[in-house]
Amino acid sequence: MSERDVEKLVLNYLDDFECVVPVHPERSFRGADRVRANYTMIFARYSNGFDARVVDSVVDGDRVWTEWEMIGTRADGVVETIRGTVIIRVENGRAAAVRFYLDPVDTPDASAQPNILD
Q1: Is the dihedral of CA 88, 16, 115, 43 positive or negative?
Q2: 108 CB-near residues (< 8 Å, 6+ apart)
Q3: Mean per-residue pLDDT for 86-112?
Q4: Residue 56: left if φ>0, alpha if ψ -120 to 50, beta else—which one?
């Protein structure tokens, strides 16, 4: 993600990849094409920089429990941060499905910080 290479990123997902967002079910989707579209939009939104890192992780069979921090800087200089957990189910070394629990970090005026994932 930090390299901002959408095609390289999409190679890590199965074609029928499933993303489940339990807290926001309307954001759930299926397919690597949607992964491509989402990251194309995210990289465009954060044209002044985007950094993603795994803070911690635990492997449990075919599942990888990960804690993330993503920080993006928009063209206008506004910095937006999300943090949370992503549980990844892996098949043949690629993401087959995730359960996504990431949300924006509260700012002093939380209403001023849009959701980096929208």
Answers
A1: positive
A2: none
A3: 88
A4: beta
